[in-house]
## 1
Amino acid sequence: MPPELPVISSPNNPDLSVSMGKFSLKNPVVAASGTFGYGLEFTPFVDLNQLGGFCTKGLSLEPRLGNPVPRVAESGEGMLNAIGLENVGLEKFAAEKLPRIAQYSCAVICNFFGNTVEEYVRMAEALSAHERVDALEMNISCPNVKEGGHQFSSDPRLVEEVVGAARKAAAKFLIVKLSPNVTDITETARAAEAAGADALSLTNTHVGMVMDIETRAPYLANITGGLSGPAIKPISLQMVYHTARAVKVPLFGVGGIRTAEDALEYLMAGARAVQVGTANFFDPGVTLKIVQGMKTWCRDNGVRSISELYPL
Ligand SMILES: Cc1cc2nc3c(=O)[nH]c(=O)nc-3n(C[C@H](O)[C@H](O)[C@H](O)COP(=O)(O)O)c2cc1C
């Protein structure tokens, strides 16, 4: 990242910067993976230099076309998606996207996934070789093809195995993104921390479905999809609250954030920063509105530094 002038905080200019040891953000607002493309698609709407950072669409060793359509459905205060991790693949990302991303000063977090432990290791190693990649975010809500399709994220033993292996290969700040589709998320959180995660993001989407009453069949070709958007906020928020008290590593709060107030709730529950996903689809400029709204709230409430809000 290019060097930045230090922030001088004052009652009129609250310091929103976030420090997570060897990783820092100019403010706590990060765009969530899969909802912000490779960052570049949002430059007509958002000055990326003013954002805390963004997570890329989930990357894999080979390009992927994703699932057959229909793969997106609206559902009340949320949406369901079964995109199937469509992405351009590691090689094209490094050759075509990263050099263009490099001109922006926000944090670049590369989200990645694999079908086996070995694939996660290869991705962590390959992405770490790029200077402009500031952090890695491991999406472990993926089936382990060598263990009968059991999702890595669903079993603390698998979490420890895949995170431990990727940790050894990753030369960057390593964030592990947890699935909420478990009985007790603090167990998988503890496993990821024990295996060497530098931070955790909670949560990924919640499994759900929509029935088509015309065809009397599931609407999504994949049958189920991941529920995201405002509908999931209270559920993901309580997971952040409990996990913040179960582990020592910093957390990114993710799920249903669309306003500065939503983001502040996550920080007050114990998250160090937040990620904004589905809201980008109904307002592509929402991330910077949240940054501005946080600044105004801090000013109005005499808060000089966002770190004053952390409860722990
Ligand atoms: C269309 C879509 C695609 C997504 N793709 C990814 C992905 O590639 N990797 C990942 O870790 N999370 C992915 N997610 C999950 C989001 O990053 C986020 O965790 C989730 O949507 C909850 O946040 P939200 O309610 O603000 O959307 C995706 C979500 C949506 C809606």
Note: The pocket of flavin mononucleotide is lined by residues 32-35, 57-58, 81, 83, 85, 111, 139, 177, 204-205, 228-229, 232, 254-257, 276-279 (CB under 6 Å).
## 2
Amino acid sequence: MKLEEISCPECSSIMRPATTDHLIDDLDITIHNVPCLKCSRCGNELYTSDHVELIQEKMKKLGIFGWGSLIGKEIEMTVTESGRRLVIGIPKEVERTFGLKPGVKAKIKVKGIDDLEVTFGETAT
Ligand SMILES: [Zn+2]
């Protein structure tokens, strides 16, 4: 598919290659000068799958890919027992996004009567 053949879904004018600032709402981060297609008449902006891939590459380089869907998400876990200690498993999606591995240091802060905050640090060597 040639870029010139894409017409604006809003006004049917021709979409031209341009650049834009891409705001990632959930993270409140803006990536500048992202290639896109822009309507020559109404200014409507559009990403092709190539553009989306490029944005995802940039997000991976910045270490923020996958975070958008995790911020603010509550995941219900069950406390289990391992040896004589109680353990809470880390969900796979959190493990992947944080790049967690066995040996990573974690800090637990008691924030309230039923509220713990977990912070992950550097990998133990
Ligand atoms: Zn248009």
Note: The CA atoms of residues 26 and 48 lie 21 Å apart.
## 3
Amino acid sequence: MKTEAALIKCDSYDRNKVFSAVKKAVDSLGGVQKIIRPQSRVLVKPNLLMAVDPASGVVTHPEVVRSVIRLLKEQGCQVFVGDGPSVWGGHIENVQDVYKQTGILAVAEEEGAELVDFDKRRWRENYPLTRWLDHCEHLVNVPKFKTHGLTLLTGAVKNLFGLVSGTYKTEIHKKFDKTDDFAKVLVDIYQDARPGLTIIDGILSMEGEGPGTSGKTRRTNFIMAGSDCVALDSLLAVLMGIGPMDVPTNRIARDRGLGVTDIAEIKILGEELKDVFSGDFLLPQTSIRKRIPQPIINLLKRFIKYYPSVDRIRCIKCSACIKACPSKVISMQKKGIVFDYSGCIACFCCQEVCPAAAITLKKSIFTKIVGL
Ligand code: SF4
Ligand code: SF4
């Protein structure tokens, strides 16, 4: 039997329209009761990367989260909502600010869901995941569809990285500084957490230099849902104009037999992919490198390089990048932010957390010459 994924058009964040699209998507999969046991405890995990307005396209929109809570409440479920944002536990952002500014606090209060933070953790081999996974019987994953400089896209699998407790996310970036090694950790987390249901906010998405404020918002007008996160990410890849195997987490998950990457093996319920949105989708600058076969990359990697660079006019000197950098190679000097490129591992965490879109990528001379 083919893996099923629902794809439903939705052209605004109007409350009724979003609920109708989310319900239609879940109903086409057999209804929420087929996937989530009525009366159970459910952890809902949106993408709440940072404390920004949802109109930025950076975070899962609160109306999508509201719809998910309502569907679960209709089944008598006890609903917990939480995420571990990128810079968390530091001096700048804390999770309560993130919940407030993203609109999730208001939605949780209005819908009777409990907001939780991920400070209590249980260690796995390489990382600690939130204890709320142990407390809840189901996980419902509610990602935002965005590009990502390191993993090409952030969708169903990558969203689960937020389950890692506190600042350990930074440690993981440091320890697993090669894209494929980092992607293996993401797939480990997916294998461990295994959300029963994933509902993707693809109404206002992000292209270009996502996933933070450096990306460009793009109206893509859809809700996607399913239980196979690898299949959902494969569909997102096709919508971006790349192949499912270009996404490192897909390659690793497929090798482990964790999901379907062959589009022909996915039964799409609702709209056809070609009818969802049209026009080229801007990929991150690093995307070409990610799509070159690894043996060729190994030969050229000393020469193909991307570095973060700061736009000092846009920079508001908040120091978020300094706190987020796993290699501790960013400093604040008289002239502003300075990078020590000798220790940069090109993880782009600095760009991800910058609230002012002040960090752009610059290419090495060889990378420019070969047009990558
Ligand atoms: S400078 Fe930016 S890209 Fe380089 S290691 Fe630090 S956070 Fe990562
Ligand atoms: S580059 Fe961005 S994150 Fe870093 S200090 Fe400036 S505004 Fe803050």
Note: DSSP finds 15 helices and 16 strands in the chain.
